[in-house]
Amino acid sequence: MFTRGYGAGPVHLLVVLGCFALTAVSVDLLAAEPRTGLVLVWFAAAVVAHDAALFPLYSLADRALTAATRGGRRALNHVRIPLLASGLLLLLFFPGIVRQGTATHLAATGQDQQPYLGRWLLLSATFAGISALVYGIRLLLGRSGEEQRCAS
């Protein structure tokens, strides 16, 4: 009866209420900060940049990838996941990769930013390699299963 009226189970409602509580605590902590205006401007700019530029770009890229793999639907997520992981790491480490704030980084850590690009490329290649390996194993297991069905 609850699920019919609410549209989901009670656990879903508890999780949503927990998210609202976490948001309220975050807003309360943010309101106490003297530079709240700067944070809000940054957040609004990030939302606009994502919704106006990034979302259409990666939606278009995903549609192109889906169209390119019509015959190989099994391969789609083996391309999506490493690209997503690589893109998120690029977003996370972009200031280090382009060496933004070199003096501050050096003063804070005692290290330069030179290894960021190489490490990001190495991690991206590792993601792609692991995904290709898993895809190859899935293909081999799928073929051996088909061969066993055909033999019996």
From TrEMBL:
Can you tell which superkingdom this protein's organism belongs to? Bacteria
- Name-wise, this protein is Lipoprotein
Which keywords fit this entry according to its UniProt record?
A: Membrane, Transmembrane, Transmembrane helix
Q: Where are the transmembrane segments?
A: 12-32, 38-60, 81-98, 118-141
The source organism is Saccharopolyspora cebuensis
What does the record give as the organism's lineage?
Bacteria, Bacillati, Actinomycetota, Actinomycetes, Pseudonocardiales
